[in-house]
Amino acid sequence: MLDEIISFLEQEKELYGSFSTETEEEGSQTESATMPNPSEDETETTLPSSSESQKTGSTPSVEKKTHQRVELSLDEQLKACSTLQELEQFCAESEQLQTDLDGTNLVFGVGNPGADLMIVGEAPGFNEDQQGEPFVGAAGQLLNKILIAIEFDRDDVYIANILKHRPPDNRNPTAEERERSLPFLERQIDLISPKVILCVGKVSGTTLLGKDDALKRMRGQFYDYRGAKLTVTYHPAALLRNPKWKRPVWEDVQQVRTLYDKLGGKP
């Protein structure tokens, strides 16, 4: 029987040439050792093993496989920020958030990172730019009084703006500035995950709701926005100029407090 097997193999060798005595397991190990790692984002060089070179009697050849480095989109970079600290650092490095006023400071946001009430203004002013904190001037002092009136401390809520850098002459943010800044604010909102959002000022309301409407038509109702209930009222700075709007603001913030309690907001 053995002689018949040897004779058969010799006939096969004459017909098909020499064959490798490498086992299937050894072959698979050699193959896996020379397979490029698809996770590496760079040019990879693979050399055949010395045993293969000896078998073939040829000079080792070089096999190159190039993996193209893929740039992350802004949305992917923002999603990669898993904490407010990481997002703040990303904002500090982003030229996209700059206005055409040189030398301004980042005004990221302030307050309770787990707040169930978030207040969104329009843009930092001079005092905010100097201190790096939103709503610290006269309008900020009035906002603090409004919060106290509905039984909130400033530290209970989270406060931010559409723009994170001061525009020249405290002008309203342009449409282009708002468009560039909005994705950063949206990520900030997602990380805080508030139950209620209070937009103060027309610019804030129209930017988040994505519609150009009069403030008096936007206020007095709640909208679904990124898992929260959003409403709009007048900016505290507007109340300093027009005291007649104090009554509508008082009505709006009372509704905010009522809904906040209904949704189980804490504290």
Describe the structure.
The protein has twelve helices and eight strands. Strands 3-5-4-6-8-7 form a six-stranded mixed beta sheet, with helices on both faces. A two-stranded antiparallel ribbon has the order 1-2. The longest helix has 18 residues, at 175-192. The chain is an alpha/beta fold and 267 residues long. The chain is 45% helix and 12% strand. The model is unreliable at 21-65 (pLDDT under 50).
Quick structural overview:
This protein has helices at 2-16, 24-34, 50-56, 74-79, 84-93, 126-131, 138-149, 175-192, 202-209, 215-218, 236-241, 246-262, and strands at 44-46, 63-65, 110-111, 117-121, 158-161, 196-200, 223-225, 228-233. With 267 residues, it is α/β, with parallel strands linked by helices.
Topology:
Blueprint: H1 2-16, H2 24-34, E1 44-46, H3 50-56, E2 63-65, H4 74-79, H5 84-93, E3 110-111, E4 117-121, H6 126-131, H7 138-149, E5 158-161, H8 175-192, E6 196-200, H9 202-209, H10 215-218, E7 223-225, E8 228-233, H11 236-241, H12 246-262
Parallel strand pairs: 4-5, 4-6, 6-8
Antiparallel strand pairs: 1-2, 3-5, 7-8
